[in-house]
Amino acid sequence: MINQEFESQEFENSLLSLKMKMPKWKKITFKLFRLFYMIRSPEIFSLFHELLFYAQNLIVLIQVASIVWIRDTPIQGWENYGKVWTILEYSRFDALCVEMDLIQPCIYGTFGFYLGFLAILAILFIFTAFKKTISKNLVLITSKLFILTDIGNYILFLLLSMVLKYSWKSEQSTEYTKTVSLDQGTLGLILSILCLIILIFICYCNIIFSYDCKHFNAKKSLNAKSTSDVKKTSVIINYISIILYSFISQGNFLIYRFLLLILHLIPAIMYCYCLPFYSLKANYSQSIIHVFIIVSSLVNAIGYAINNAFFCVLGLIFLFPLCAVLWFFVMKFRIGRIYSTQLSCIKNLREFELFIRERLINMKNESIDQTIEMFSCFSKHYLNYRPKLFAVWVSSFYFYSCSNEKLAIIELNPKSIFHSSLEEDFQEYILKIEISKTLNISEEYQLLTKLRKFEKLKKLDKKTIVSVFTFLKNIVLKAPIESNLCDLLKTFKKNLNKLKNFNSKYNNIYNDSAMFLSFYVSFVDNILGDREKALNLNIKKENLIKFQKSKEVRQNLVFSEENPMFLADNTGKIVYFNSKIKKLLKSSTEYFSERYTQTIFPSFLELFTHQKLRSFEKGIKNSTLYINGEIGVIDSQGYWVEALVVVMLISIPYPVFIFGFRPLKCKRESVIIDKKGEILEITRGFCKHINEEVTNIKGFNIEKILKLDLKKLKENKSDKTEIGNKTIYILYTKKVIDTIILRVVSICKEEESSSYNSQEKSCNILFDKSSEEKNKIFNKENSFTTNNTQCILLINSKADHEKSSSNSYSISYLKKISEISTQCTKSIEIFKIILIISICIIILSNISFLIFAKLSIENELSRKAINILGETISILTSLGDISGMAQVAYSAGSLKNTPLSFNQFIENYNKLYNLTHYYKENSDTWSHCLDSEVFFSPNIPVVVIGDKMYGYEFLTMYDYLIKTLKKSEFFINEVYKKTFLFNDQVLFLEYNAFGKASFYLNNELDNVLKCEHSKLQDLVENKQIIIGFSIGILAISGVMMLPFLFYTQKKMNFLWNQIKKIAVEESIFFKQLCLERLKTIHKSKNYSIKKITQNQKNRIILFSYTYKYAWRLLSFFILGVSYYIISNYYFYEKFSFLLNKKPDFTYKVVNAQVKVATLSFIDRNYLMSSWNFDFAGLSPNFLPISTDYSYKHIKISNELISIMNDFAFHEYGDFRSQTVFDLLFTKVQNTSNILITGVYAGVLNNILESHYITYSHDPKIDPIFRLYMANIVNISNTLITISDEAENWSEILIRENLDLYIAFAIGFSIFVFILYAAVYYPFLRMQRKKVETLEYMAKVVALSNISNSSNTEINKAKK
């Protein structure tokens, strides 16, 4: 660690430490808004800006009028002026959007505008914080947006308030000409609140950062004002008025108007009393808005009281212009009253500004002194601290009116300011920037800026040296931590690059500075090892020094880097000093610790006491120059040193005194005497000149010492005397400095003119020595003549040709390190390429997996074979059942006039007709699962009945359906004709619906179901193949990266050990240079070069890179595998389950429909068999269906119960939407009591009733049978509805899961890219940079070693 004592001394004697820093957030904000301010507040306020100012106020006036003069007002005759109120209402953005039916786009546009504006400001803030270049066009656009928000401030606030109101109440708006909905829900409520906050923030920025408190431009600007408090109050009152309008204006007419009257009275009075704007026109145009609202509210209230709208209009037409004129004269009266006030009577800052405003705006040269006196007089109200606003006014007056930037910057003393607001800080910031542009011309501020830059350069140089020195020391330690070493390397490289840029930049800016050039020479030679460039720079430096010595004007400069100087505060305490003052006073750094100026100058001079300095600082009015005279200084041994002393008051940013010295090296020695001739101070060689044995002759009389007549010397100004065998020439000079007289007696061995000017001209600068004598660190290059330079070049070329063994080793190490670093870089690049390929494989497999899933699932959903065939079977069964019921009913005559289910028969007929086109020709619908012979060859056994002929014929499916449609059509016609001759047709429908044709179709339905399951199994197998292939490719990619992982581990450690060898064997010269720089330049003496032990030399560095690469590689593999596992076991398993159960569910619903119809058919025939009304009785000669009704009843009942129980199980829970659940288990309709608890209970109860109907033999069975048949119809309809609903719901469910999977896949792909960009790429980039940094550091150390070892050989050759 660095020695803390020297660190603190270095910090205390630093100009950078004296600088008062602004908070970073405030500096960034001010810097950003200054760009907008420069565009929005030009120095020349044109006619356009003036018109824009008045237009803004007119717009605000119209907008506030629209919330006072409302269209719906309960005053008689108000509707007569409806067009006027409507026109006023259309001045509002919200009303206009409603009228144009664009209210929703307007709301969303407002949300987007403010959120986008906030995003732009955030981006600009980030760019400013990171010192990125901001496009001028973007700044211009943002500035225009600020103007736009200022114009639309209130109309958009009203719109957002209305949205907030109706989103909160969830009601429709009634304020407009149309009834519209402004309810945007919870999201709209949140967005409206957020946008209102943004709007208020932007309005605050508009007020704060468009505020200009300077008086000089008040004639040209209407925005110049003394304070923005009144403007803030005005805006807040307007906001409150809009809120009152939005929430209480309806139904609270008088309360609303009286509140407006009272509220707007406040800003109107404030504008009149405070007169914040420097322009009367601006104050009047701002305040007249509030006067208008006051008058409008008053006449509205009176009109409401007398219930007369005409009075309101008349009052507005006549009363408002009268009030406006009176208001203008009231403001003029207020101004006149201020001017008549005496300055001594003013106690308030605002009143003082009003009193002096006209003088500052219309400044005349002859009144400047009087104005300064007024400022000085009023400042006595503040003892130690004063408001910043007052300081800004005074400073801007000095800068703009007096053209005195030095006094202007001093007035902005942060240590004497209180009561600071953000807007005043911004005004101070802008003013300081303007002052600094002019201030940098003066030599004292130029010197301070130069010294600050040099300190900054030294500070960065120290950080760089410490980082590399620490690295070289730590790398040989036991078990060094890699992260610490890398941090040091990173810091070294970054700071070294900065040093290069800063050195080059500052040497271009200060091309006449030997200080910067000498520093640059040593940096290039010692650190960079560029001998050729260092030699060129050294020649340039020597030429510069020679040029400065021969330049006479240089001798006239006091504040320059070659001359001594120090800074002191108003107590006289020295707060900063340069190295030249230490040489002048022959002192050390400790000498200036707690040193005061009074001890450095002759004791009888009372010019630098605390009282004198403070008095000058507080009473300064015209000039910052305090002293300019040859008063000399007292060195550390008590001798007087003749020097020209210039003392000025400056700001850094608080006021301090800068003491500049120009030492005079004259061929004489001097003493200071008092009026009586008593010696007060002497120069160092005075006693030696007169051969006086006593060294301290203070207090002796000059007449006795020099044996002369003082009175005569004063008259003649010169004399001579004999001392020993030497002739001494004596000069007498009398100087008047302030109120103090300085009497100087000088002696010399040669005759000089008594004119002091000639003496002064003969004086030379004291510090004209070579750079070797100035600083140890700058003695690496010697001063050469042209011949010497040529000689050195020859020696250099010889040294380059005959390199030492050390240099050879350095070059070989460097080559080896370069080769290893190239190998490491290539390995990392290959690792990176494989990783990118792996990511691409994952993404591509993800896309292929996604496409496969999408296409396969959509393909499965598009298969409608089971749906079409199932619906066809259920329709055929229903036709057979309904026709049979109708035959029984009409034959029995009991239901002759009650076509209980005939409408359902017609509906099924139409459905069957619409399905026939599927069976017309073979298509993908059937070929997917069935052979073409199944439906498109005559294989279906169809019963044929007619003309007393009974038998079977084999038909295609299409022919079978056509024949069924014809029989059904004949049946319908017979019913319509009421002839009821449809026995053969009914038997055809029944025998085929419940006979062999039905069995054939049901068998094919089973085959389709099995086919669907097998196809789904193929889908699962294909999916597993894709997943296995993707995981395999991922594993192969990981295995391919493993060799490069171990190769990188090996090469990186090899590289580190080569770097360690450089640190052990090849960095001796470099360490010595670093140590010397730390000691001489940076005063850090706690560093030392320790001897490296043999164990440290032999110790091998071994860092674990395998772990760092392996866990990232493993995590990447786990991530990829996890994706496929989640895809398979979550999404695809769900897809597979839904796709597997979907046809099952459809199959069971179809079976339920068929079983219900079959049960009805069996039970009906069983019941009618006793009357020979069953099919056996109607067709005794041909019975294609078994008549064992009891067996079939029990069998069908059990099968139906089993199917219905399946619907109740959890297995099909996903298919039970709320609608399906309600149809199955809750009340669905009231036409039949059997269905009050859903079709599930209805089917079970219907089975029970069928048992009762079949086996009870109850003679009064007719009502029960009627209800039973009605239930059959309702159950059949409900099952059809369940089938359709379940089908739609299953597709929705599958597609929702598919969309969720697509979102997951896309999100995973994005996540992989983000993961690579945020984790893997930075890691690999950091590893590559680590290699580059190691190589960079090795090159710097090796080149420095080569350069400095060659310099050593050169020095030996010279000797």
From TrEMBL:
Signal peptide: none annotated. It comes from the Eukaryota. The chain crosses the membrane at residues 111-130, 151-168, 188-209, 230-248, 254-275, 287-307, 313-330, 639-661, 830-853, 1025-1047, 1109-1132, 1302-1323. Keywords: Membrane, Transmembrane, Transmembrane helix. The keyword Heme does not apply. This is PAS domain-containing protein. It comes from Stentor coeruleus.
